[in-house]
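[Help] Beginner question about ligand-bound structures

Sorry if this is basic. My supervisor gave me a protein sequence and a SMILES string for calcium ion and asked me to "get the holo structure". I don't really know what that means in practice or what format the answer should be in. Inputs are pasted below exactly as I got them.
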Amino acid sequence: MTMVVNVNGTNGAAGQKGGDAIYTYNGHIGADSTTVTAIGGNGGTGAAGGNASITLNGNIYQPLGSSLDVITTAVGGNGSAPGNGGNASVAINGNIIQTSKLLSEITLDAVALAGLGNKTGNATATVNGNIIQYNNATATNVTLDAAATLNGPDSPANHGNSAFGTRTATVNGNIVSGNINNLSVFADAYFSNGTASINGNIFTAKSTNTGTVTLEATGQSISINGNILNLGKQDLDITLDELGPAYNAQVSGNIFNGTGTNNLVLTNTFNPGPAPGTDTATVNLAAGTLTINGSTNTINKFGGIALNGNIAGNFIGTSGNNNLNAAGDTTTGTIIFQGNGGTDTLTGGPNALNVAYFAGSEFQYAITGTLPGDNVHPVTVVGGPTGQTSNDTLAGIQRLKFLNPANVSDVNDDGFGDLVFQDGAGNFQVNLLGATPSTVTFAQTGFNAIGTGQFTADTDRNSDVLLQNASGELGVEYTIAGTPTFTGAILGGAAGVTASTFTGWNAITAGDFNGDAASDVLLQQGAGGAVEIAFMNTKFGEAPGTIDQISAVTAPTGGNWNVVSSGDFNGDGKSDILWQNSVTGALDISLMNGASGTPAAIGSLPAGYTAIGSGDLNNDGKSDVLLENTTTGNAQIWLMNGTSQVGAPINVTGPGTTAAGWKLLGAEDINKDGFSDILWQNTLTGDVQAQAMTTGGATLGALQDLGTPASSSFHLVASTGGG
Ligand SMILES: [Ca+2]
Ligand SMILES: [Ca+2]
Ligand SMILES: [Ca+2]
Ligand SMILES: [Ca+2]
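Answer (accepted):
No worries, everyone starts somewhere. Holo just means with the ligand present. The predicted complex, written as structure tokens, is below.
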């Protein structure tokens, strides 16, 4: 059965408004094919156009043929200045489509085109509250389409101009279920004053369904909220088609359930321009969260993610096999890929700095190929800790980051932490630990070593030594185990560093606070003073230690707070800050994301203790807090999970209980097992001893003597955190 309806308003005579075209068909048994066109009459000279309205509500469709199509178009009549254009509205609401007949498609299509005039009309298209139940054994395709625009030219540049009327496209509250492969939901309101919403719909496919479920919204103001999609094996495509600088999109509170292999394709596009704003997305398949523009959605049992267009995003995969793909993404920021084990394919964005994270330590992996990987010469990263093994292929990735925070002082990337000594007169000695230990020396007059970090992220993964002189100037010594090379005092860069930029500021430690696999420097302006981070090498290919940005850091409230060290206390790849109050003995940690982080109390020092730094003393991928008994030099460990202590403090006896002069200096992995080990140096003799933490503190073996540097005037600059 076919129904074709054309309703035309009459054109007005001079000075006379065009006639309205109104069609209503409610509460009937519907046809298999319904085509309704309503066109408002044009206004006569100086008069407004007629309105066009179509309402198809509360009908029941039980098709007998091979498809079901409801196609509607309302066109407002054009006005003649000063007459306005006619409004156009289409509603396909509250209908029931229920069938077990074999249908090739089910389409509900509402198109509203506002009339032109002195002021254009408003266009409103709604496809709301319909129920579609498709029960045939063979799958079909369903389209719900609401489109609102002008019956003439428009552009995003007209947005905000009331003379262009409003466009509203709504696909809300529909229930669609059954044997459906492709579901397309479009709410497109263009090109100016457009509001589009896809809210509160429920879609339930069969687990065997394949194809694509598309949610596409176009406009200046977009919402895709509160939908529940129970997919079969379909890909889920969410397209945010932004129109101009006024664009904003909310995607919030949706639940997307897959069957384990579904891909999410998230696209930000703009057509036509001008140049787009940026959407942000963090997809954490392991945690089941999808955060878009700060709003959270639930995503279950998906196997892959692709970002397209202009979305600044990060990916976190599951322990299964994931395809994390930014090949179609045009953003220029940093994209982080964390496959989380399994056989993953990681594809970088062409314009971004792409960083791939891996659990554990680099020595646990076999890496083939050369970074940056491309599609011709991909990099494979195979191995990893027990239970988190990866067999990953990387293309277009610039940097790798291994998340074990114990591995920060390894200057030759052999898995063994190394010991950096200095004499305070610009002479340095580095002891390379391992099966065949060796020693490197270099000199940089006027500089002191602060610690170790990764300042050559785009050329090697050896740790480098951070230096600072009395004027506050920073420098980096790199390729320590080859030909030690000095950057000189680091000046210029995007941050415009001068010789006096850091005068009065003490570099405390290196750390990767923004997670881009390049170390940054944490500085404090004297005891208890202001704190800032110098972000380094945030872009691919910059010279070692290039400072791109300097940002202030919020200290805990109340004053007297000193930065102790950095460490990754929550294991997210971003270094965090350990604080100690010099008056109260309180300890805080700020979990950092770049320069942002809120201090949280973690406890107070026991009497007679001070905080020394951090290390991963139980090899769980999260830094722990290291305290020193200032009388005996003995260590106390607080195992941490973020800002929470795990279990009771662990006391570790050092060499200071039997001899004088021993000082606790820090923790490094000296024996390549992923556990940070505790280091003491005797300030009288220069001798260094270590307590291997192989068991994480349960039962510890004897102290190991790591020998003395060339002179007892060399004191150890043990890692106090870093990364
Ligand atoms: Ca080493
Ligand atoms: Ca960094
Ligand atoms: Ca962290
Ligand atoms: Ca730990």
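A couple of things worth pointing out: The pocket of calcium ion (ligand 1) is lined by residues 410-412, 414, 416, 418, 432-434 (CB under 6 Å). The chain is about 0% helix and 50% strand. Feel free to follow up in the thread.
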